[in-house]
């Protein structure tokens, strides 16, 4: 059966991130001039306005900053997943990423919980980063 959930749109700004995800690597832009690590990707550094950047490989570890447990599907493709947890994960390198928490009952999810990235290969172009409790 085909994947029915909405998928991110890959463009020039975010293509480096999604290429990294295909290889099971979280990559974020890091300013060459001031070192600021940014997400989402952008043409200019929000800290110093430089256009120069490289990609920083994340270790894929962080803490849950905030979360919500969905008990209603707002898209029919998510109905089988109910209840599911959507969270903002504060990665150790600085960026905050909106993602899903998996392999953890919703009632066990807590702000501050350590999490690690896991990967869901959707198709040949998209692999989604999701997070589970860190061991």
From TrEMBL:
Residues 59-120 form the ChsH2 C-terminal OB-fold domain. It comes from Desulfatitalea alkaliphila. Residues 18-53 form the ChsH2 rubredoxin-like zinc ribbon domain. This is OB-fold domain-containing protein. It holds the Pfam family OB_ChsH2_C. InterPro entries: ChsH2_C, ChsH2_Znr, NA-bd_OB-fold, Thioester_dehydratase-like.
């Amino acid at each position: 059966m085909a994947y029915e959930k909405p998928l991110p749109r890959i463009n020039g700004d975010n293509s480096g991130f999604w290429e990294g995800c295909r290889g099971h690597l979280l990559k974020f832009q890091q300013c060459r001039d001031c070192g600021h690590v940014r997400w989402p990707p952008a043409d200019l550094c929000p800290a110093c306005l430089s256009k120069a950047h490289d990609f920083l490989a994340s270790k894929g570890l962080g803490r849950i900053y905030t979360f919500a447990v969905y008990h209603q599907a707002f898209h029919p493709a998510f109905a089988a997943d109910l209840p599911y947890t959507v969270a903002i994960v504060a990665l150790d390198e600085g960026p905050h990423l909106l993602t899903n928490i998996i392999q953890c009952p919703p009632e066990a999810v807590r702000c501050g919980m350590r999490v690690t990235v896991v990967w869901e290969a959707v198709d040949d172009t998209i692999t989604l980063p999701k997070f589970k409790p860190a061991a």
